[in-house]
Amino acid sequence: MLTLNGDIKESLETLKKSHPKYKVVFMGSRLSDPGIDKLNETALTDPDWPSYLRLFPLLHWSYTDVWKFLRDLWLPYCTLYDQGYTSLGNMRDTLKNASLKIINPDGEQDFLAAYLLGDPKAERFGRRFSDRRPEFL
């Protein structure tokens, strides 16, 4: 398995140059992700992107399914999820999820880890594009 860092389009261009025989890429998108609601399990990349068949094996997974899989298999994940973030975007649009806010024993505000989110529908409440999010700090 290869992991490339950075912008998806640029990473696919790099992959195409370094491994021109590769024809298929696995994507981690789910139906609950913004802008994904019309995808199928397979899709070709758009014409202005490097040519690949994209497979979406997690398309029908829920927020809870993802966390159960990661935690049951002890797979590594971004440590921001342990700090109260439940949905990551760019720095200006991503906030800690207020649904995970607690007051710790010292009386200070803290946040639970993302896998402890009680209501999966609140997954995107830490993103500025969400019109359903509660008020933040």
UniProtKB/TrEMBL annotation:
Its EC number is 2.7.7.2. It catalyses: FMN + ATP + H(+) = FAD + diphosphate. Keywords: ATP-binding, FAD, Flavoprotein, FMN, Nucleotide-binding, Nucleotidyltransferase, Transferase. Pathway: Cofactor biosynthesis; FAD biosynthesis; FAD from FMN: step 1/1. It comes from the Eukaryota. SUPFAM superfamilies: Adenine nucleotide alpha hydrolases-like. InterPro entries: PAPS_reduct_dom, Rossmann-like_a/b/a_fold. Residues 13-94 form the Phosphoadenosine phosphosulphate reductase domain. GO terms for biological process: FAD biosynthetic process. GO terms for molecular function: ATP binding; FMN adenylyltransferase activity. This is FAD synthase.
